[in-house]
Design goal:
2 domains; Fumarylacetoacetate hydrolase, domain 2; single chain; 5-stranded mixed β-sheet
């Protein structure tokens, strides 16, 4: 299985491929016919990339299409009914950050929650894709944290507001290509304590159905992301916390939590 990272190597930003511990530059088109190029290093015993390679968000999509209440237990904990069709909303590209970048809590927003999610990266332009062909349009899987200003959401403000703040869409650390996503474990850990645990087999609307439904509403472009919903266990974050999203077969996405903003954050 290929794991594709987007890295900053002393100022040069590009994609690399990790295959069986060998890290190579990505040659060709990420979405159409990429291949490993020159080897630039090896992973360490823990599977980490060489330290001089700073890992960024694996891509900056034109849009993130996120799914609400796609696990029954999460619907129950929010006091909302189980949906009869996918609940979709958009997170902007300006909300995207990568591993290690801070989630910045907006002053006055109140409670801000983590939401661990399995994210799907689109490979081909997708419009009105039948469910049976969904896999043809998927590049791979990554980790997503659908950070949410919960008090704002409960006041009835539209999802785009409470979920679209800068830094509210951590993605990464890589795109796992050819990963079977039918039964993947997804977890959220805060300060070393597990808060969320779920499995993609428990989704109300599985990934192929989501691709079919969303592409019937809007065209998905190469690099767009579908964030597939969160399991039960959402909980508030606080400045000083460290939150880690784990997706089986992908890796770990870790971000510190701070208060307020401090210049450009997109990476």
């Amino acid at each position: 299985m290929d794991r594709i990272y987007r890295i900053d190597d002393t100022g040069a930003v590009r994609h690399v491929i990790e295959q069986d511990g060998i890290v190579s530059l990505l040659d060709g088109d990420l979405f159409d016919g990429y291949r490993p190029g020159r080897e630039i290093g090896r992973t360490d015993a823990a599977g980490a990339l060489p330290r001089h390679l700073r890992i960024l968000a694996p891509l900056v999509p034109s849009k993130i299409v996120a799914i609400g209440r796609n696990y029954r237990e999460h619907a129950a904990e929010t006091g909302k009914p189980v949906p009869t069709e996918p609940v979709i909303f958009i997170k902007p590209s300006t909300a995207v950050i990568g591993p290690g970048q801070p989630i910045r809590m907006p002053p006055g927003a109140g409670r801000v929650d983590h939401e661990a999610e399995i994210a799907v990266v689109i490979r081909r332009r997708a419009s009105h894709v039948p469910r049976a062909r969904a896999a043809e349009f998927i590049l791979g899987i990554t980790c997503s944290n659908d950070v949410t200003a919960r008090e704002m959401q409960r006041r009835g403000v539209q999802f785009s507001h409470c979920k679209g703040y800068d830094t509210f869409a951590p993605l990464g650390p890589c795109i796992a290509v050819a990963l079977d996503a039918s039964a993947l474990q997804v977890e959220a850990w805060v300060n070393g304590t597990r808060r969320q645990a779920g499995n993609s087999r428990d989704m109300i609307f599985p990934i192929d159905e989501l691709v079919e439904y969303i592409s019937s509403v809007m065209t998905l472009l190469p690099g767009d992301v579908i964030s597939t919903g969160t399991p039960a266990g959402i909980a508030p974050l606080a400045p000083g916390d460290t939150v880690t999203i784990k997706v089986e077969g992908v890796g770990e996405l870790t971000n510190p939590v701070v208060m307020g903003y401090e210049g450009p954050v997109n990476g």
